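CORE FACILITY INTAKE
Project code: CF-77B
Contact: R.S. (postdoc)
Sample description: multi-component assembly, two entities in total
Requested service: structural model of the whole complex
Turnaround: standard
Below are the sequence entries exactly as provided by the requester. Do not edit them.
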Amino acid sequence: MADLKELYRQVILDHYRNPRRRGKLSGPHVHAEGLNPSCGDEFFLDIRVEDGAITDAAIEGQGCSISQASGSMMMDAIVGKTIDEVRGVSGQFKLMMGIDEGEDPLDHERPGAVLGDLEALQGVRKFPVRIKCADLPWTTLAEALERAEV
Amino acid sequence: MTDLTHLRDDFPILSREVNGHPLVYLDSAATTQKPVQVLDAVDHYYRTMNANVHRGAHALSVEATDAYEGARARVASFINAGSPNEVVFTRGTTSALNIIAYGYGLNVLKPGDKVLLTIMEHHSNIVPWQLIARHTGVELVYLDLTEDYEVDLSQLDRILDDAVKIITVSGMSNVTGTLGPVTQLVAAAKSVGAIVVVDGAQLVPHYPTDVEALGADFLVFSGHKMLGPTGIGVMWGKAERLEELEPTEGGGEMISDVQLYESRWAAVPQKFEAGTPPIAQAIGLGAAVDYLEKIGMTAVREHEVDITGYALERLADVPELTVYGPSDPSRRGGAVSFELADIHAHDVATILDQYGIAVRAGHHCAKPLMRHLEVAATARASFYVYNTHDDVDRLVDALMEARKVFGLDG
């Protein structure tokens, strides 16, 4: 069951059980919702954009360990980053997951160097039906960025 | 107890492996596997008599028509219908429920009328009525479930009045296995002059069904959940109901005469079978019905009570596992929904799949029921004639492995 160990790495279970930045933002923010009607997973994402950067974010919703961990890891990966940096991380994530076609962005000599905890999600690639679970927070983020008109 | 283990040899798919393990198929509430007898019947039709029905004078068309109408007669006798003409072939349960909802909704129901449902209904017995409510202004009213997952009839007196024109209820829940209180609802309907529609998608494959004894006006079900092909379903209706119900699809075969500006309908059941029907699928369903009758529906039900009882007993030993459904196997069907600790149903299903075990995970097309149960998703194991105690043991072993994957003690 090597594939299962690869899929459900400790860091994924940690984010699933202790998700970062749960809740809603008060004050000015943009809101986006991501729903997967076939499985019922849902995300409610708030981001605050100031001076071309994401200065705060919060996330709510429910779903499987893969979608929830991906959302929690996304919080760590985007808050405090410029919009350009966030777009870069999102692009690398989608390459790593095989959602977008292109070169593997990871440095396998140095695990975690490129995408941090998010790299733990690469095991999901062996479970094609679950890739959309990992991607849901990121499609929600893309919608939030569009609404923020950045 | 009837031992049905020998039937497994009739199902070719059960000998395959999934992810390196012999397949354990526990998703029969979604669709059942098919025995060679059904596969052969469909194959034989296409190889030897393929033609359109009810229209050619040539030999193939006559043979195809005989086989198609023969299947109708077998289905009629399977549910003890008064006549094969009371059996309308549809694409499935969903299609049949839409025909009834639109047939009554567009022609009979009026603003202020009510349709009574239960919160355990499948989306296919909710959404068509919501669509009709938009057209007609009828009101949908729901019966709740009790803490024991039974339909709460204590609210019936409060809800029931002369405005209720249709009562539509699942005979057996695809989530909790709850048996719908059809007898009581039929009696209640009589007192206010309402008609009763029974969604038999789960009931008919698993429970001896006699429409005369049932007393409902309509019973609908799907072929693919009872060993038959996909794309075929049944709308049984009392003869007088089928007479008053307007067709919702027009086309060939459903008319007796067509003028430029109006037409007259063919007699029942053709009135509801516009276009070329699912011929091979109906013939396959006929073979499925033969297969089930050979086992005997009493034996089918006994097997289900036995394996459901065994599953409930074994699942009770899995730590932090919650089953959503009645605990007495004789008062429920074989769809067993559960939640395991804090492991999401999709993660449970992925892990079980790695052990070759097929279960459903999600909301089971019953979101109002899931909200009532206060769960977003459950995993569901569901059983049919080919499942054994060994399958249940494999499920329980894999659930213990799932706990380990999620770092929970055995």
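Facility notes:
- Residues 28 and 48 of chain A are 7 Å apart (CA to CA).
- Chain A has five helices and three strands.
Invoice: internal transfer
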